[in-house]
C-alpha cells in the first residue's frame, strides 16, 4: 500500500532486500488516496476526503455508473508512482479487496500499470481444486468466492489483450482468516502443476495491529507459522512475479507467497 501507516517501514525493508518481489497493492476503498480528493471525486467520500469506507459502498457506486474510469486510472497511477519514487522496482500490481476482478476496474488499473512499466498482475480467482481442498471456510464466504468466478474468463481475456502476465490462480483466498498448517498441507497436496499465488496475511498480534480495524488478529500469528513450513515441501519452486514468463522446470509446482 502506497499510503498506509507502515508504508515507509515496509519500503525500507524492501530496499534492504533487493531480491524480494514487491508489488503495488492499489487501494481504491477503505483507505487514504494519494491524489488530491478534489481530483478524484467519484472515489472519495465528500465528508471525509477518504476513499469510501466499505466494499459495499464502492460496488453500489460502481454498478450505478458513479465511479469514473479515468479517476481509477489516475489514483492507481499515483499510488504506483509514489512507491516507485522510493526506488522500488515493482514486479506487479494487485488491488485491495481484489477490486480488479471487476471488468470496469481492471482496464484502468492495467493502463496505469503499463504506463509505469509494469506488466504482471494478480489473478484473484481461486481454482476449483483449491476451493475443494479448503474445508473449514464459512459457507457464506465460499458462496461469494464461487459466484465471483463468473468474472474469470473476462479477466483472462483482458489481461492477455493488454499484454500482461499472471498466474494460474490464487489459493488461500477462501481460507482468509482460517489458514493453518492443515490448510497449507491440504492445498499443497491437492495442487496440480502450474503457477499459483498463495494469498496470505501473516503478521504479529501486537499493540499496533490491535489499533487497526481488521478481523484478522489471532489468525495472523497462526498463518505466519503455517507459511514457514512451505519451504519444507518437496516439488515446489518458490517464485515471485518477477519470474513469470521465465522458463520453469518441467513438472514443477510454482508458488508465490
Q: Care to describe what's here?
A:
The protein has helices spanning 7-16, 55-62, 69-85, 103-115, 128-133, 139-148, 152-161, 181-190, 207-210, 218-228; strands at 22-26, 90-95, 170-171, 194-198, 236-238, 253-256. With 257 residues, it is an alpha/beta fold. The chain folds into two domains: 1-118, Glycoside hydrolase/deacetylase (TIM Barrel); 123-257, no CATH class. The model has no long low-confidence stretch (mean pLDDT 90). The chain has ten helices and six strands.
Elements, N to C (H/E): HEHHEHHHHEHEHHEE
**Overall tally of domains:** 2
Alpha-carbon distance between the termini? Answer: 17 Å
**Rg, nearest Å:** 18 Å
- The chain-level structural class is alpha/beta
What would the average pLDDT be, to the nearest integer? 90
Q: What would the principal axes of the Cα set say about the shape? A: globular
- Helical content (DSSP H or I, runs of 4+): 25-40%
Question: How many helical stretches?
Answer: 10
- Adjacency order of strands in the biggest sheet: 3-4-6-5
The fraction of residues assigned to DSSP E strands is: 5-15%
Instruction: Tell me how many strands there are.
Output: 6
Q: The biggest beta sheet, please?
A: 4 strands, parallel
Poorly predicted parts: none
Index terms:
single chain; 257 residues; TIM Barrel; 2 domains; two-stranded parallel ribbon; 10% strand; globular
Amino acid at each position: 500500500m502506497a499510503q498506509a501507516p507502515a508504508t515507509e517501514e515496509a519500503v525500507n525493508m524492501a530496499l534492504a532486500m533487493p531480491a524480494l518481489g514487491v508489488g503495488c497493492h492499489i487501494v481504491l476503498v477503505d483507505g487514504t488516496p494519494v491524489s488530491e480528493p478534489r481530483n478524484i471525486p467519484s472515489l472519495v467520500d465528500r465528508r471525509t476526503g477518504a476513499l469510501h469506507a466499505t466494499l459495499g459502498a464502492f460496488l453500489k457506486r460502481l454498478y450505478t455508473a458513479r465511479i469514473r474510469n479515468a479517476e481509477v486510472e489516475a489514483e492507481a497511477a499515483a499510488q504506483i508512482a509514489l512507491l516507485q519514487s522510493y526506488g522500488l522496482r515493482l514486479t506487479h500490481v494487485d488491488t485491495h479487496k481484489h477490486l480488479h476482478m471487476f471488468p470496469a476496474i481492471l482496464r484502468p488499473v492495467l493502463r496505469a500499470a503499463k504506463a509505469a512499466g509494469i506488466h504482471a498482475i494478480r489473478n484473484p480467482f481461486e481454482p476449483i481444486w483449491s476451493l475443494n481442498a479448503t474445508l473449514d471456510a464459512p459457507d457464506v464466504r465460499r458462496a461469494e468466492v464461487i459466484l465471483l468466478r463468473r468474472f474469470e474468463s473476462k479477466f483472462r481475456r483482458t489481461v492477455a489483450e493488454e499484454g500482461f502476465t499472471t498466474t494460474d490462480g490464487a489459493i488461500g483466498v477462501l481460507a482468509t482468516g482460517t489458514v493453518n498448517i492443515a490448510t497449507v498441507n491440504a492445498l499443497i497436496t491437492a495442487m496440480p502443476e502450474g503457477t499459483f499465488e498463495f494469498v496470505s496475511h501473516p503478521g504479529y498480534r501486537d499493540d499496533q495491529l490491535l489499533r487497526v480495524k481488521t478481523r484478522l488478529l489471532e489468525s495472523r500469528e497462526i498463518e505466519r507459522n503455517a507459511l514457514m513450513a512451505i519451504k519444507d515441501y518437496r516439488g515446489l519452486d518458490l517464485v515471485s512475479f518477477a519470474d513469470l514468463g521465465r522458463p520453469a522446470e518441467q513438472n514443477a509446482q510454482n508458488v508465490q507467497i
